[in-house]
Here is the input.
Amino acid sequence: LIGITVGKNEDLSEWYQQTILKGDLLEFTDVPGCYIYQPGSYRIWEFIQEFFNARIRKMGVKNCYFPLFISEANLQREKDHIEGFAAEVAWVTKGGKTKLEKRLAVRPTSETAMYGFYSKKIRSHRDLPLKLNQWNNVVRWEFKHPMPFIRSREFLWQEGHTAHMTEEEAGIEVRQILDHYASIYEDLLAVPVVKGKKTVNEQFPGAHYTTTVEGYIPAVGRGIQAATSHCLGQHFAKMFDIQVENPNQEVKEGEKREKLYVWQNSWGFTTRSIGIMILIHGDDKGLIIPPRVADIQVAIVPVGVNAKTTDADREKLYDDIKNIAATLEEKRVRVECDFREGYSPGYKFNDWEMKGVPLRIEFGPKDSAKSEITFSRRDQEGKGTMSLSDIGTGIPKLLETIQSDMFKKASDEYAEHRKQITEWKDFVPNLNQKNVVVVPHCATGECEDEIKKDSSGQVEGQEVDVRAPSMGAKSLCIPDEQPEEIKEGTHCINPKCSLASVDVMKLMP
Ligand SMILES: O=C1CCCN[C@@H]1CCCn1cnc2cc(F)c(Cl)cc2c1=O
Ligand SMILES: [Mg+2]
Here is the structure.
């Protein structure tokens, strides 16, 4: 088992592929864009599910499951919703040898699979709010170059779909969910994100507005969409006839109540999050898994055992190691004792490093004599020691320190590469320095397109975006956190923009 043979900054996509394969997270198949999620990555997905399920349960969201296949009639219910997506839809046209009367779409997202049911289920305002979520897989027949976790033809996600009496109530939930998404990234995956709103160009056409959390991949030098929470407005309610009588209307005897369309939200978080975590935290030795999502948080490797070691001594050493593990497990630390025969400690160290295990403990006769352990953090060079009597409190604390140090390192790097500029002359050069920029912008679509055009060709030398060849700078979001004041008369970053002054700053990759 050899280590990663290429540097992360030398050849990112080769590094990434070796890191996820040798880290036993994922395996390729003979179907392009479809991957095997090995236990290592599926366990991370389970941590995310456990965390998010607890949050949404408190909000009254219930999990459910809708069919994988969507009739063409249903998919077509919302024309402009899918006209831009038609090329991505995968179809089933045969059952065995039998050609299907009507072909069936494999769900690319479940609005059209769910909202016919919503129309039936929601009869009166008393049926509101309706809040359903499903954990499932979706298929989108992407033609851009696939990248494991980041862009695949099939991926796992959760998709939440809610219906509310008012726009205000819907708006509150959109933001609550976005905060939970930010919390999954920051508190679980140690990945910093910027919360904001998508511009009209970048939002999902079926939405009233789209909020988003945007990550940043230092190795690529570009931002990445990390999760979205949309308010769909009444758009789908009109399409699927989801309406209730107005409960607040004053009506005279016998007068009919007016009907109101419900306000809907939909929100999604995908396995792309695992790829983002790998790309941000990994180093030249491969994976680094944040302790809160590490299946194995501590690997204990016996050292100083050799041919001269008597069986009795080795048994004694192994018993001591089992006691160390028991002490840690009592504190709910996830431990693995590596008693594999026939492998050197060095081999084992390399193996656990490639699997990204955040903390390694070595224990041998010398440590035993001093009643201490020797430890190595995966996120930092060097070794430390800790007396056996302290490990029950010291190791859990050390794991929490590793978690927060990983987050701080990534946050500092994101902040370092997020430049606030106001002059067009600084725009392209900053992209070339792997920065994302916060710029004054008029927020019009035309202006955005012009900037994209004016920053694509000229950006030679910019790292090729591992996700897709750079098509120029597209906007990531209008950050919630706006600079305290934007000086009066500040001009849109686009020198050709005809508007006099602007009042928003936008994050551009
Ligand atoms: O992003 C989310 C969160 C979770 C629920 N859905 C929304 C909107 C999804 C947009 N979108 C995204 N991709 C799509 C691809 C398709 F082939 C078709 Cl037919 C539709 C879509 C599509 O509507
Ligand atoms: Mg897409």
